[in-house]
Write a structure and sequence with these properties.
Blueprint: H1 3-19, E1 37-41, H2 48-52, E2 54-56, E3 59-71, E4 76-82, E5 89-94, H3 95-100, H4 103-106, H5 117-142, H6 147-157, H7 161-188, E6 194-201, E7 207-213, E8 237-244, E9 247-255, H8 259-269, H9 274-288, E10 292-294, H10 296-299, H11 304-318
Antiparallel strand pairs: 1-5, 2-3, 3-4, 3-10, 6-9, 7-8, 7-10, 8-9
Helix pairs in contact: 1-6, 5-7
Length: 344
């Protein structure tokens, strides 16, 4: 990607944090809310994120997909080091609901049980809430009247800015129906209202993710989620990836009445070979998700060429002007291979 363009994108992300923050509790029962609205973590700060971090010269850090830093010596926008305290935060729950709603999965970071529908639902609800909240912040940014923000967006998108805003509005429209359905399931404690495809690995994987994804293609290569109509809703796969102490879990969830999303999960479940299944899960996270965090134990030892290719994939998928990226069995990325496990 052009360095000047990458710098503009990096600047835009910084402006998002400064100018587009929204503070609102995602829980449907507003009468229970108790201020303040907290900077909540979509992934556990003292569990999941702590397992990923690495300390160097007294400073602990992890890497994230959505922030980059220019290496001046060779003009390469590498992944940026961030502290886990700043990772995956959003002002999406009040003090009461952030504490009470998630206590069954939060008080003991390693307690998550993939056979427990309540655990799977709560992780999925929090992952959805993060993506839902971020999308409204994105709309606030792109509609900003701030002169600095407007100038940057015009330089970045030009005449295509209107189409960009329209796309965000369509995405928000597509979020509203599942939000209402999830809220209803939450209030009724109907945790079986989602279908879950879960995986457990007997080691600590080097990646974490909490996101709603709208895949472009099925594993089979058939097209998926290609409509730009408000009449046809997109199908979502709520994705939660949790490295834990000496084990890791992946929770993919979809509404029980969403046939397209269920087909997506079925195709993953029926992949014949474990290696290919792991690679497709890695592809699903890498290509479709934004709220992704990596361990330096995984990223730092990689070759310079591998890092550049990895970041180029992120750049390719982040652009509004590139075609859809298809799965390739030769993908050199497998977060789940035992050889990539984190040593705690």
């Amino acid at each position: 990607m052009d360095i000047d363009l990458q710098k503009q994108i990096t600047d835009a992300l910084s402006l998002l944090a400064r100018n587009a923050t929204i503070k609102d509790c995602s829980h449907p029962n507003k009468s229970e809310c108790r201020l303040p609205i907290k900077g909540a973590h979509s992934l556990q700060k003292n569990g999941v994120l702590k397992y990923l971090e690495k300390a160097e010269k007294g400073n602990a850090y992890i890497y994230c997909h959505y922030e980059r830093k220019l290496r001046g010596a060779d003009n390469f926008y590498d992944l940026k080091k961030i502290g886990r305290g700043d990772a995956s935060t959003f002002f999406g729950f009040c003090d009461f609901h952030d504490t009470e709603l998630f206590k069954s999965i939060e008080n003991d970071p390693n307690s998550t049980d993939i056979n427990n529908d309540e655990h799977c639902f709560l992780h999925s609800y929090r992952s959805f809430s993060h993506s839902y909240h971020r999308k409204y912040e994105e709309l606030k940014l792109y509609n900003s009247k701030d002169a600095e923000v407007s100038k940057l967006l015009q330089n970045l998108y030009g005449p295509a800015l209107k189409d960009k805003i329209k796309g965000i509005e369509l995405a928000i429209h597509d979020f509203e129906k599942p939000k209402k359905k999830l809220d209803k399931l939450l209030l009724e404690k109907d945790y079986s209202g989602l279908d879950y495809l879960c995986f457990e690995f007997p080691h600590t994987i080097p990646v974490a993710c909490a996101s709603v994804v709208t895949p472009d293609e099925y594993y089979s290569g058939a097209k998926f989620n290609h409509s730009f109509s408000k009449v046809e809703d997109y199908s979502d796969i709520i994705t939660t990836v949790l490295p834990l102490q000496n084990r890791s879990v992946v929770i993919l969830s979809a509404f029980s009445d969403d046939e397209r999303a269920l087909k997506y999960l079925d195709e993953i479940e029926n992949i014949k070979y474990n290696l290919e299944q792991e690679k497709f899960l890695s592809f699903h996270i890498l290509v479709n998700s934004e709220n992704v965090f990596l361990s330096p134990q995984y990223y730092n030892p990689k070759s310079e060429d591998w890092k550049r290719r990895y970041c180029s994939i992120l750049d390719f998928n982040a652009s509004d002007f590139t075609p859809f990226f298809s799965f390739n069995k030769k993908l050199p990325i497998n977060y789940f291979d035992k050889s990539e496990k984190i040593i705690l």
